[in-house]
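Input:
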Amino acid sequence: NGDLPIARKKSLQRFLDKRRERLTCASPY
Amino acid sequence: PSVSLLNQETLQQRLQALIEGARENWTYAIFWQSSYDYSGTAVLGWGDGYYKGEEDKGKGKLKASSSTAAEQEHRKKVLRELNSLISGSTSPTDDAVDEEVTDTEWFFLVSMTQSFVNGGGLPGQAFFNSSPVWVAGSDRLATSICERARQGQVFGLQTMVCIPSANGVVELGSTELITQSSDLMNKVRVLFNFNN
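Output:
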């Protein structure tokens, strides 16, 4: 549901952003 | 209140500094915040977490998960739903979300839903006894009386550590075998001594 406590919401947002960064990390080319 | 607010805001930086500044390869760090529920029972709940991931061996890919195809589908589905919840978007295409969710990523995510009451679990034990708990080795994790330690082992952790601080517990986990270090415990005491 949408009732996510703020601390968890922030942590989750950060986790998803970092995961996206890691996975789309530029290749050596 | 202003002091605790400031500390809450810097929690992420403290966790990051702890992991990125360590000689050892820690996979994640979590701060379990102590509070009391409506009945006055002491509870350790999610404060914040920093996920670093496993050591990248230079291949630019995350470590593959040992989970089954069905389990991966389940993880991706949950991640998609969480992503929609956070972004407010229902976009079906997000390559990052659809990538394989590793065991340690999943363990970290599941941790966000957990809490520990009355000295329960590894964090509760450390907080209740005001004493660090350091469990190194798959065998020791697998045979621990704490479910969280056994769960950590199932998801590929080899080391789990819980260090009590002024108003919570700092937990670190690694897929590598890391022996007890007083240096790390001192760092936690300095970084997480919220009363100072």
